[in-house]
Known about the structure:
This protein is an alpha/beta fold.
Amino acid sequence: MAGAEGTAVGAVAQAEAGRLMSQERAARIAQIRPIIARVGKRNQLLVKIVTEDGLVGWGESGMSSREGAVAATIDHFAGFLLGQDSRQIGRIWQECYRGQYFEGGRVLTAAISAIDIALYDLLGNRLGVPVYQLLGGRQRDVVPNFATTMAATKDGLVSEARALVDAGWDCIRTYPASFVGEAVFDPRATLAQTAQELIAVREEVGPNVHLGVDLHHRYSVPDIAYLCDLLPAGTLNFLEEPIRCETPEAYETLRRMTNIPFAVGEEFASKWQAAPYLERGLAQYMRLDVCNVGGFTEAMKIAGWSERHYIDLMPHNPLGPICTAATVHLGAAVPNFSWAETRQSPVEELGFHDPELFPVQITMEGPVYRVPDAPGLGVSVNEDLIAEQTVTHIEAPHLRRPDGSVTNW
């Protein structure tokens, strides 16, 4: 009898081993394909990953205007990722990051981000659960957004801000009007004008709306210090990317010169870049970009680190429905969250979320995204229609000062 029972147990174990092996084979990566797609006024770099059993996952890279470099990196990664178990997301992240002598860099992590997001989409589809369930579960039902005003005049900025408040937004970001349509940019000459614009917008929206300005790292430390001195107390709730992020010490100097909170992080390509900003009190809002920083795998680590310092996420999200979906799932899964960026507000018509190209995407309800219940990211892609679009390279403006020297865009 004991021998018969042992044989039966052995047969069950063998069957289970066979089942697991069959699942592993089905989940192996069969194809990784970067797709540069023209969507609205910008190109988007999508990544499609297909497994041996035909399941599909979609990701997106965030390095706009350098899509070709990122696509080449994704093709390189595919050389050693094909045949691997798509469920081993953390291990794949480590191999992509550590599989060469020169670590990191924005092109590499932009490629890793797209692959990581696609792998999470795949796993969610495989298990029949939304991605946020793989990140610890949903902590909120909706993800709030901030909207952006980009008018070319002070009156236009004020009018757009009023329209957004009337539509229900409680957080608005503005660009200086001097940023619109200029090939020559004189940073110092714009400061007083920008201050007047911000004061006017604050007077229009009142004290209960959070107001910030995206300075697109175009300035120097003394420039920003002077701008802040021109503003009455309470004008701004945050300064976004006032200077470049390469040197945390410069932000430390600026931190001593103004008490306006900083919203920084969209340039970060890793937890290591975020570290000094978190540890030294140089970021009051963390603006990480899930499509650049290393996908969900890296973003969740930075989110936890931010939580330790009582810093909310305020993610960068300037791309299409896949980036938006990834941002929403991230925002749903973390406790420390304020607003996500959206480019779908009533005052912007950029075409980044074309419903014909992306027939299924996360819906917007006023100033919030509704957290979806669909498996994976909850986005579908019309590949045939995307293939019909004409892709032309889009180069970011190369700005110069009046003296002919190059300055930041």
